[in-house]
Amino acid sequence: MNMKSYMPIILLIWITLFLSCNDHSNVSTVFDKATSLMETAPDSAYTLLQGIDAEKLTSQNHRARYALLYTQAQDKNYIDKENDSLINIAAEYYRNHGDVRPRFLSLYYKGRVHFNAGDYLNAMLAYTKAEELVDELQDDYYAGMLYYQIGDIYMNSYDYPKSLESYRKAEECYKNSGKDLHRIYAMLGYSDIYYNMNDYEKSDSVYQVIISEAENLRDSALIGMLLGNRMMTFVRKDQMLEAEKIFVDLKAAYDIEERDSHFWACVVEIYLAKGDLSTADLYMKKSWDYAKNLEDSVDCYITSSIIHKARNDYKSALRDYEAGILLQDKSVRKNLQQPVLTIQRDYLTQELEIQNLHLRETKWRNNLYWTLTIGASALVILLFYAISKKKKKETVRMHLAYEELRNTLSNNHTEMSNVIQKMFDIHFSMIDKFGGLYYIEADENKSIDKKLRKEVELFLTSYADGNGYQEIERIVDCHKENVMSLLRSEIKLKNERDYQMICFHLIGFSAHTISVLIKGLTPDNIYQKRTRLKRIIKESEAPHRELFLRLLYMSDAK
């Protein structure tokens, strides 16, 4: 065959390559356009990305960029995705490719997806990795977004001091980036924290500042929301006349129909203070209508019990009050069971990874066998034998690791179940004891408050030292990878109190509880010491340093 005979084939190959390059160019152009629209017109960016057939993307770079941009566009259009399969494509790729910006954003939006799913632990782990890139990123706007999300996690975990710190960092970053509206929402975050901490004076003072700035921005929707928050602080301060005045103004000038359940419960309290039970009933119904979660239902039941009490219907009041308390117990049980659920989930994930390893190894062996059969030589056969022997040892090692993991997780599951049962026994026995103290006859001239505080002190100090503390440290070792034994053997701390504080922190005790257990320490001292101890561990050369830091940061997120 002469050269002319090959011309059609060469032409076909050239056209295919041209079209392929052209498709890649078009996809990159769409990605660039979507990126430019992401902040100013996120809906348009989302529409552009929807026009791309992700199944036809062949390069890893395009798949990763599509995964990041599509997840970002969904988030900015208030589409809360809870499945991390798409963003994981971007996170895995940008871990070893690209510059710091897509690496940061892939971790940030991975955290957002986990947060939407209520998985605060994995959300915090993603945010912690993203925070390590903040200095290199040098973008105050995205740093502000990150710290705001961290503040939300701490608030939902009831760690108000850390939440307050994160919101203040977000405010500072937004201020540096010139994002006034974002800065106002960061301030709103820590004013809400003051409200949750019952510091209503500070909360109200921040609300007043934010309202003034919102008026300058002429954001009527934000002003209406802030006035509603001020109304609730007046209710909590029992300043019902001021609260009622704000409520009347809100009804006249703003759309308040979509306010949350807690807002309407506060309105109920305003009219209960006036003795207007019929109006209180009306707003009580609205509070129930907007109840969306367990906390809202508890709030509604307690408020409803107050209405019944005002009507002297003590039977109905007791019924609703008990219903609210039972819902609170349900929340406690759910939180107690969470460690067991996490262990089960990790066990199943590990088991699936081992199965996939076996499948990949089998496929690799088959391919290698046929390759060696076609072009076999004495040297290649010898090499194959060495590789096969190494793989066999690795397989045996993986089997042993798998069995050890299964036994460990099984033991941890049993241990945690026993701990949960023990905590329930203690919980209800203490309620029974406190209930008995409450109904002591008045003529016995005993101080209920004093006896209750004494019982609580005895209960807590039983775990502060001796056998009680040793039992806690043993349980922490049992289900947290033998951390306390390793810590004691690898890092020399200043005194025994430092080890005890780390142990109590790992088990999830608050700074206030730790200050009771360890005499001579205040909550502020504990935050300072905790930071110092983390720095000591981080600067040490302990073999298990990464384990210690990981568990401490996981405990921070609770």
Structural key phrases:
single chain; about 550 residues; mainly alpha; Serine Threonine Protein Phosphatase 5, Tetratricopeptide repeat; about 0% strand
State the low-pLDDT regions, or none: 10-22, 336-349
CATH architecture of the domain at 1-138, please?
A: Alpha Horseshoe
Beta-strand share of residues: under 5%
Q: Could you tell me the radius of gyration in angstroms? A: 30 Å
How many strands, what sense, and barrel or not for the largest sheet? none
Strand/helix succession: HHHHHHHHHHHHHHHHHHHHHHHHH
Shape category: globular
Structural class: mainly alpha
What does this molecule look like?
- With 558 residues, the protein is mostly helical.
- The chain contains 25 helices and no strands.
- The chain is globular.
- Mean pLDDT is 80; it is low at 10-22 and 336-349.
In short:
By secondary structure, the protein is an all-alpha fold.
